[in-house]
Amino acid sequence: MEKRKNIADKIWIVVLAIAALAYVYPIVMILMNSLKEETSISTGTAFKLPTADTFAGLANYVDAITSKGFLQSLGFSLFITITSVAAILLCCSMCAWYITRVQTVFTKGLYFMFVLSQVVPFQTVMFTLSQTADSLNLNTPWNIWVVYLGFGSGLAVFMFTGFMKSVPLEIEEAAMIDGCNPLQTYFKVVLPILKPTMVSVGILEAMWVWNDYLLPTLVLDIKKYKTIPMLIQYFRGSYGKVEMGPMMASIMLTVIPIIIVYLAGQKHIIKGVAAGAVKG
C-alpha cells in the first residue's frame, strides 16, 4: 500500500513539474527576447538564447522606460492598485464582520449575493458598466477604485467571513466591556486578528488589479489614461509596426514586481485561504 502511495506521489510530482514548466516557459521566452535586438526577434530566432550578435543588453528596457509614457502609466497602475486594494480590504472586512456578528435574514441574503457575484461572467455586464462609469464620472484613475471595489468584493467578503466565523465572540465582548465602541473594537481588536486573511486577500486582489486589461480599457478614457497593460498594447512604430523589443521589456518590467510580491506572500496566501475556508 505504501509502495503504491510513493509511486502515486512521484507521478504527481512529475505532472506538477511539467505544469510548472508550462507556466514558467512563456516568462522565460519574454525575458530572452527582451534582451535581443529588434531584428533577431522577428527573423526566426525568437526561441533561441541571445548570442553575441543578437544580444542588445538593456537597450530595450531603456527604450521602454523612456518612451510611450511608461512612467506615467506606471504611476496610474500603482495608484489604481493601491487605492483599489485598500478600499477592498477596509470595506469588505468591515462588511464581513457585520455579516458574521449580526445574524439576520438581511445579512444572510447579503452574504449570498456576494458569493453569487463571483459566478456572474464579467462579459454580461461590461457594456452596462462602461455606460454607468461614464455617467457617474468613474472613468478616471482617481475614481476607478469604486468599480474595482464592486468586482473584488465577492471573493474578499467570502474569505473574510469564513475567517471571522472562527474568531471567538468573547474577545469582542471583552473589548466592549472595557468601553470600546464598534469602530474601536474593529480597529483595535478585529483588524489585528484579520491580518493573515488581510495579507492573502490583498496579494490576490493586487495581482488581479495590476494585471487587469479589460476593465480599465472599458472604463478609462484611453486618449488620456493608460495603465501598464494598456500601454503594452500600444508599442507600435511607424506604419503600425510592433516594437517587439521594447514591448517584451515592458512586459518583464510589469511582471517582475507582481511575481516578487506573490513569492514573498505565498505563505500568507495559503494560510489566509485555509483560514477563510472554515465552515461556521
Description:
With 280 residues, this protein is mainly alpha-helical. It has 2 domains: 1-66, no CATH class; 69-276, MetI-like fold (Orthogonal Bundle). Helix content is 72%, strand content 0%. The protein is built from 13 helices and no strands. α7 packs antiparallel against α10 (195-211). The two termini are 36 Å apart. The relative contact order is 0.14.
Task: Outline the low-pLDDT stretches.
Answer: none
How many DSSP-defined strands?
A: 0
- Overall number of structural domains: 2
SSE class:
mainly alpha
In percent terms, what proportion of residues is strand? under 5%
CATH fold type of the largest domain: MetI-like fold
Chart the SSEs and their pairings.
Elements: H1 2-34, H2 38-41, H3 59-66, H4 70-101, H5 105-116, H6 126-135, H7 145-164, H8 169-177, H9 182-193, H10 195-211, H11 214-219, H12 228-232, H13 244-276
Helix pairs in contact: 1-13, 3-13, 4-5, 4-7, 4-10, 5-7, 7-10, 7-13, 8-9, 10-13
Quick recap of the structure?
With 280 residues, the chain is mostly helical. It is built from 13 helices and no strands.
Features of this protein?
mainly alpha, 0% strand, 2 domains, MetI-like fold
